[in-house]
């Protein structure tokens, strides 16, 4: 038996129950069907139906928001150490079922097992990290004035909505849900319609860990009905959203009437800038990793390579050689580096850029073709001879597709890097420290790495500028979003109160 056969057999064991009952919504600790009936989720590997999924609509969101509202006071007031213990047990539950989570995620989304096995464990890490912050999350400051002892304290904002996309959905969901629960909020989660499997596993694990009913509720469905209703619901105090920039703008509009607080993590078209003085071997590894891992379906991917003229020919030649050798295959094969793209719609979008590149006058230097007939497989692709005004340089393709753009001097690199509506991440490769300081200071991005690929450190702020988002996650920034700051002033003596109407 090969490792692939073994993984397929294990997956079959996990999918049996989903095939039997479908994926139901979980509201107030109970399973329920969707008031819109059901829809089907399919595997991008061979387009086969995985199972039925409850199609939640406004009525289900209302039930879930009510359950979250009713559970809020109990969860908020539970002693911090008890909440902490439950969150640690959630992390342990994720670790215990990480193989099942990874296998289901691969089959549902097409992501390679090589990366999803780590992503499942990252989900557990998110819970552990925020569990450790539970006790001090409500701490505040003491700001003494001549007449008052002023203190600040933080309180959880209330029930919140979490709306997640289909790329690494399990890990991304934990990234929002773990700090929300640690803050003392209750949650209604609306996972992406294209990847419902692991959201179901998460709510099961959380309840088994002792999370009280109604603290985490999961409603499946589509953005235009379930997602919209969540944004509009008056009992939901904030929306943590991860997805496309144009959806982020809808989230803001939909929440306007209820004055919703929104945290938006949106798209990117991130530059990696390689100067000729860099460690080119390491730069090459990082450039390849940051666009071709996770199928390139990654908001932080470096999808624009800005390479200095003097090293361009050699760097691109080495790039082509490596890209041509990347292994495309079944996502459950541990040797696979790129699996199929998530849906037919997304596959059509990504492959349409192969023609766009040629029409715009770029060169398809590697890939640019589909693989097989059964699923949504594409070859990793590299476009060269591109300029920054081309669509392949300006639009988020969100697949294993890299656009290489040459530059000659530092100012030109900066101008190209910033000439884009997005500003999520940037990657700078140079051994000139002063240049790195100068360049990162002027680069429009929420997160920048110098001589490194993206290495997430949970206490650091995560988020973008421009069309890439509003707000930050990570460390205490997460609590700023899920909590309200309160100021309370205590008089320390009999200070003079201005008297009106006293003659
Ligand atoms: P999407 O915006 O289409 O969908 C994301 C979620 O929003 C889904 O659950 C969807 O059902 C829901 N939704 C859609 N319309 C809605 C509406 N009107 N109201 C409420 N909810 C609605 O995004 P996608 O295609 O699933 O994901 C890919 C995108 O996510 C890419 O643009 C990627 O860059 C972005 N992303 C960003 C980050 C980040 O941290 N900045 C991380 C991961 C993904």
Cofactors, ions and other ligands in the entry: nicotinamide-adenine-dinucleotide
CATH top level of the largest domain is Alpha Beta
Distance between the termini: 96 Å
How large is the share of residues in beta strands?
15-25%
Number of domain modules = 2
Shape type: globular
CATH-derived architecture of the largest domain? 3-Layer(aba) Sandwich
Q: Record the strand order, biggest sheet.
A: 14-17-18-13-12-20-21
Keywords: NAD, Oxidoreductase
Protein name: 5-carboxymethyl-2-hydroxymuconate semialdehyde dehydrogenase
Organism: Tropicimonas omnivorans
InterPro entries: Ald_DH/histidinol_DH, Ald_DH_C, Ald_DH_CS_GLU, Ald_DH_N, Aldehyde_DH_dom, DH_HpaE
Report on the structure:
The chain has helices at residues 3-21, 58-77, 80-96, 98-109, 113-131, 169-183, 197-208, 223-232, 245-254, 280-292, 309-323, 344-360, 391-394, 410-418, 433-442, 475-482, and strands spanning 25-27, 30-32, 38-42, 49-54, 142-144, 148-156, 160-163, 187-190, 216-218, 238-242, 261-265, 271-274, 304-308, 363-366, 370-371, 377-378, 381-384, 401-407, 422-423, 425-429, 447-450, 465-466, 469-470, 483-491. Helices cover 42% and strands 20% of the residues. It is α/β, with parallel strands linked by helices and 503 residues long. The protein is built from 16 helices and 24 strands. The protein folds into 2 domains: 17-137 and 154-265, Aldehyde Dehydrogenase, Chain A, domain 1 (3-Layer(aba) Sandwich), CATH 3.40.605; 271-450, Aldehyde Dehydrogenase, Chain A, domain 2, CATH 3.40.309.10. The structure holds nicotinamide-adenine-dinucleotide.
């Amino acid at each position: 038996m090969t490792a692939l056969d073994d993984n397929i057999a294990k997956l079959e064991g996990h999918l049996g129950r989903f095939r039997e009952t479908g994926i139901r919504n979980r509201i107030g600790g109970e399973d329920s069907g969707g008031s819109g009936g059901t829809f089907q989720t399919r595997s991008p590997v061979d387009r086969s139906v995985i199972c039925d999924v409850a199609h939640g609509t406004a009525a289900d969101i209302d039930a879930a928001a009510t359950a979250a509202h009713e559970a809020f006071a109990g969860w908020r007031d539970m002693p911090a150490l008890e909440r902490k213990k439950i969150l640690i047990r959630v992390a342990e539950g994720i670790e215990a079922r990480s193989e099942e989570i990874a296998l289901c995620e691969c089959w549902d989304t097409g992501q390679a097992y090589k990366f999803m096995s780590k992503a499942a464990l990252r989900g557990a890490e998110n819970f552990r990290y925020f569990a450790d912050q539970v006790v001090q999350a409500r701490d505040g400051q003491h700001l003494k004035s001549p007449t008052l002892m002023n203190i600040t304290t933080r309180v959880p904002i209330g029930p919140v909505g979490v709306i997640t996309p289909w790329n690494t959905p399990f890990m991304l969901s934990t990234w929002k849900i773990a700090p929300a629960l640690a803050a003392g909020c209750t949650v209604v989660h609306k996972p992406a319609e294209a990847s419902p499997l692991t959201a179901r596993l998460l709510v099961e694990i959380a309840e088994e860990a002792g999370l009280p009913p109604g603290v985490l509720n999961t409603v499946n469905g589509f953005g235009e009905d379930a997602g919209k209703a969540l944004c509009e619901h008056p009992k939901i105090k904030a929306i943590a959203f991860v997805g496309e920039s144009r959806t982020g703008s809808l989230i803001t509009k939909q929440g306007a009437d209820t004055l919703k607080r929104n945290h938006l993590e949106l798209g990117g078209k991130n530059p990696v800038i390689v100067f000729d003085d860099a460690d080119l071997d390491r730069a090459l590894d990082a450039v390849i990793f940051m666009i071709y891992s996770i199928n390139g379906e990654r908001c932080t991917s470096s999808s624009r390579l800005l390479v200095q003229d003097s090293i361009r020919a050699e760097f691109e030649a080495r790039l082509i050689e490596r890209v041509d050798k990347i292994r495309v295959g079944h996502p459950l094969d541990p040797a696979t580096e790129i699996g199929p793209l998530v849906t037919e719609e997304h596959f059509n979008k990504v492959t349409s850029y192969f023609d766009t590149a040629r029409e715009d006058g770029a060169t398809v230097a590697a890939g640019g073709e589909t693989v097989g007939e059964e699923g949504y497989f594409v070859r990793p692709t590299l476009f060269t001879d591109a300029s920054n005004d081309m669509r392949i340089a300006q639009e988020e393709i969100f697949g294993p597709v890299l656009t290489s753009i040459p530059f000659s001097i530092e100012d030109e690199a900066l101008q190209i890097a910033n000439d884009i509506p997005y500003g999520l991440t940037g990657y700078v490769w140079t051994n000139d420290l002063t240049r790195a300081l100068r360049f990162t200071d002027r680069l429009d991005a929420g997160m920048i790495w110098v001589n490194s690929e993206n290495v997430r450190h949970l206490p650091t702020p995560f988020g973008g500028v421009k069309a890439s988002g509003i707000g930050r996650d990570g460390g205490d920034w997460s609590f700023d979003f899920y909590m309200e700051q309160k100021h309370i002033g205590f008089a320390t003596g009999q200070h003079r109160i201005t008297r009106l109407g006293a003659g």
